[in-house]
Design brief:
mainly alpha, binds adenosine-5'-triphosphate, 332 residues, 54% helix, binds magnesium ion, 13 helices
């Protein structure tokens, strides 16, 4: 079975609709026919402002959401990044083979550091892509499902793997970028030209899976569209309407062309109201499932302990090989 690996950061109290439709939904399908590793990258989460009082709870909560959304700890390996010291160790090593100019071209760093202010952006935010490369290469993953926003980091990961293999001999599998069928990119409801983001979207622009359904409905009602009236899928000229149709189609499993036909002659208000109903019907049972899982933190921690053991076997093996190739003196 091909190995697959992906992660989602504990940077908020809830995942958003983009995280589900662009990532987690595909992970659930992939666990059926892949050797799947899914993790919560808490080391990545500290590259931006974070609160030490909430990080652990958010990490557990992320695990609960993954399970509530359909990941099955019997079918895939779920773990927390900081439980595996190998991630930080390999990240350091990869940093030593990454060009400064190469790292400087990463657009996520440019975006996120511009938001924080250049003086406050950390070196960790700058080297984030090396940690992500370590996450992937440690597990010799064949496929890494990521959204469009992470494609450049994956390209860097492939370059690093090839560079290392060329210089030191075959060590890492070169992972394939993989946009799984049905993955959708979801835009911010208030600014449909940018992606919905846990850490960057304003409250009105983001639809959190665990928020109050009444607020969700309200956010759809006030979603930014355009001053035409036609309900038509045209992401370039009508990004707001296109985004609503994308969400609607993904959650209802109906084709966008079908929706366009259904809403012919109807107004944006009708579309928004029906879509809000569809989203609310989806999130309603989820809140309860997450709560149920959070009521038994010891069980979640047992899942994570098993995950760390399994992940550690694979990661440890890769890291030992890396040490040998680089020529470090083995510990006796
Ligand atoms: P942050 O703002 O903290 O970076 P995020 O919302 O970008 O949070 P991540 O934890 O970085 O979420 O990403 C988890 C997964 O969700 C990744 O595979 C990413 O590509 C995907 N993803 C994030 N935002 C969207 C979106 N708007 N549409 C589709 N997929 C998304
Ligand atoms: Mg992100």
């Amino acid at each position: 079975r091909p190995r697959v690996l992906s992660g989602i950061q504990p940077t908020a109290d809830s995942f958003h609709l983009g995280n589900y439709l662009g990532a987690v939904r595909q992970w659930v399908a992939l666990q059926e026919d892949h050797d799947a590793f899914y993790f919560v990258p808490d080391l990545h989460a500290i590259t931006v402002d974070h609160d030490p009082k909430t990080l652990a709870a958010r990490t557990r909560n992320a695990v609960a959401q993954l399970i509530a959304l359909g990941l099955d700890p019997e079918r895939c390996t779920i773990f927390v990044q900081s439980h595996l010291p190998q991630h930080s160790e390999l990240a350091w090593i990869l940093q030593c083979y990454t060009g400064f100019g190469e790292a400087s071209r990463m657009t996520q760093f440019k975006d996120k550091s511009a938001r924080q202010g250049a003086d406050r952006a950390s070196v960790g935010l700058f080297t984030y892509p090396d940690l992500m490369a370590a996450d992937i290469l440690l597990y010799q993953a064949h496929r890494v499902p990521v959204g469009e926003d992470q494609r450049q980091h994956l390209e860097l990961t492939r370059n690093l793997a090839q560079r290392f293999n060329q210089r030191f001999g075959q060590t890492f599998r070169v992972p394939e970028p993989f946009i799984p069928p049905g993955a959708a990119k979801i835009q911010d409801l208030q600014d449909p030209t940018v992606k919905m983001s846990k850490s960057a979207s304003a409250p009105g622009g983001i639809v959190e899976l665990l928020e109050d359904p009444k607020r969700i409905a309200k956010k759809f009602r006030s979603a930014v569209t355009d001053n035409e009236r036609e309900i038509r899928y045209d992401p370039e000229h009508k990004p707001g309407v296109a985004n609503l149709l994308t969400i609607y189609s993904a959650l209802s499993d109906r084709k966008i062309t079908e929706l366009e036909a259904d809403y012919e002659g109807k107004g944006y208000g009708d579309l928004k109201k029906d879509l809000a109903d569809v989203v609310v019907a989806f999130v309603e049972p989820l809140r309860e499932r997450v709560q149920g899982l959070m009521d038994d933190p010891a069980e979640l921690d047992r899942v994570l302990a098993r995950g760390a053991t399994r992940a550690g076997e694979v990661a440890g093996e890769t890291l030992a090989l890396v040490h040998e190739k680089i020529g470090f003196l083995p510990k006796s």
